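User: What would this chain look like folded?
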Amino acid sequence: MNEKKKSESDIIIDELPLLPSRGVIVFPYMVIPLLVGRDKSIEALEEAMLNEKKILVAAQYEEEVEEPDPADIYKYGTVAEVKQLVKLPNGMLKVIVEGVSRAKINSFISTEDYFSVEAEMFSENEPKVDKEVEALMRIVLDEFQEYIKYNRNLPAETMISVNNIDKPGRLADVIASQLDLKYKKQQELLEAVDPLVRLEKLLSVLQDEIEILKIEQNINKRVRKQVEKTQKEYYLREKLKIIKDELDYDDEDDDEIAEYKEKMEKINLPEEVAEKIEEEIKKLSKTPDMSPESTVLRNYLDCILDLPWESEEEEEIDINKSEEIMEKDHYGLEDVKERIIEYLAVRKVAPAKKSPILCLVGAPGVGKTSLGRSVARAIDREFVRLSLGGVRDEAEIRGHRRTYIGSRPGRIINAMRDAGSKNPVFLLDEVDKMSSDFRGDPASALLEVLDPEQNVEFTDHYLEIPFDLSEVLFITTANVTNTIPAPLLDRMELIEIPGYTDEEKMKIAERHLLPRIYEDHGLTEEQINISTNAIYRVIREYTREAGVRNLERKLATVVRKVTKEFVEGRDKMARIAVNSLDNYLGVSRFEHEESDLEDRIGVATGMAYNQAGGDILAIEVAVMPGKGDLTLTGSLGDVMQESARAALSYIRSKQNEFGLETDFHKKYDIHIHVPQGAVPKDGPSAGITIATAVASAFTDRPVRGDFAMTGEITLRGRVLPVGGIKTKILAASRAGIKQIIMPLKNRKDYIDIADQIKRELDVHFVDHMDQVIELLLLEGVKNEN
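Assistant: Here's the prediction, encoded as structure tokens.
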């Protein structure tokens, strides 16, 4: 284009049209055809043809970019001369260019119709060819000759074109243009302006490529040899097969076939199963060993013959022994243990009757899984545990059909195979954690497993034959029941396992947790003693849970630190008292301060049931001038939001009793918030709590802070019963609450609460919201607004 100028370093600077290339690097001295179809690129070529036929070719960083910006293009490229340009019928241009010199883009002058750039053109300053340079050039030529030997895409005549080059820079460029490299590696060579640096980089690239080509050649030789061997074996086996068919020859002496037949004869199989196995053995005898089908047949036969078709444990139910085992393994849970003993008594008297499926429901850490183990010990059966948490594929239960590559039986059949008995105690853990997707619904597949009328002929997709599960004693566990599908829940008998009281946790720690922790950490009772008061403090100030899982972790932390002290030289018994706990566990996590029980306006304490066992929630209400909008925050579910609206409607219906204006709901915005916003919450049991907080906020009357409550509210103010009473009361007790309000119809649930908990609580049973207001709202200055 315009005039050329020289910089101080004698580098030519010129304005040139730019052709961005995709995956193609043009080197100096290289002649290459290019197909050009983008509008800006065509405009750039037409501009070059009008001005000395010079154009700068620079590669894009990413080939996929259709309309590149300046930032998408490498700074280094090659100034090329257009040798030929042909317009194709489809509107594209076929252009042949020859690389002239390297160039670096200093700036983009124009980017509208086409890219126009100011570029520095580097003249090739070839170094003097001394002995060292000559040696380097010879090594590069030798390596290039070795490269040609392994790369069949380059003819041997290529060496002739490079042998006579006596300039190192040109030699590097010509060889680089012949190599089959990724364009990013070619770009690195292009950006090496110094000829000697370029030649050394090229040498390194050649050596790497030769090593890769050698490895590829070795792999190809091995594959070719294996293919030839496989083809030979296949040919011979097919020939042998034809000979056997002609002679009507059955190879009874084949060791593998004979082993399968012998194994089958030792098992008393159902007729349908025996016929299926004989059919599969016959298929295997006629299948070549190298055929993939033979592996599928062997896996199938191994699986089906390993199943416990007739092997079962003799059931010995001794009720007294069972009671001893349950008492030894678990402290507390009297109602749960009594129900399990009743269940075992019925099995002893009527073993042939179909047994119900037990579902143990409770918070984490209350002993659901260990109860299943105790049942297996009590009746002297094998115990099998299958975790269903996160299972979302029906094939996990029913297995995959053998038509699929890598098919296998489902978890139920695999567990029966591992048990080695057809009547184990089978624990299906976390049955509430299953989900479904496009691969099917595992909960629906479990219906057949857990239905006594259907599981006598449970059919796994992989087996393709029925397997009898009717003698299996199934026990399931769950944290909550609302996520279990109704048809599945209908097949199970629920046994609720409430949380433990502090006294029960204390006994569990002394009898079960500490002896196990001491043994796991290599200590004895002569080396460490944790006082009763210290354990109580761990329970109350370092954990807040329905079970004992975190309690076990905290006690293990203390014992672990004591073990470290003995390793470091301690020689006296470690006595862990209340005051020394801070040295081992740090500052207490939970402290019940007076501020937690403070009487506040617009704040009421509710009792909640969750997967962790239960908790108390301070529901907050703020009233501000506005247009009557209701805002609900805290990750509330649909049912809980409806409870909030019902509570507000109740307050509106009682506006005269509360001394509120007729249109108060139009003058104020109401914001109801439930803390722990990241935790989803739902259910109707917060109804009376929300109504109390709203009434307090509008009347400016404080709510008694020493009360916690639960109950559903109706539009007429009636208080309806709710679930999870045991768990909620235990949670309130752990939090230091002494006064509780609950629905009158939940009195029957309160009877089952442990006596030591009842003695600490003052419970008020109500059937109408007016009673709640009378108990909770203190006299204060009414809202004059």
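The CA atoms of residues 174 and 531 lie 85 Å apart. If you want, I can go into more detail on any region.
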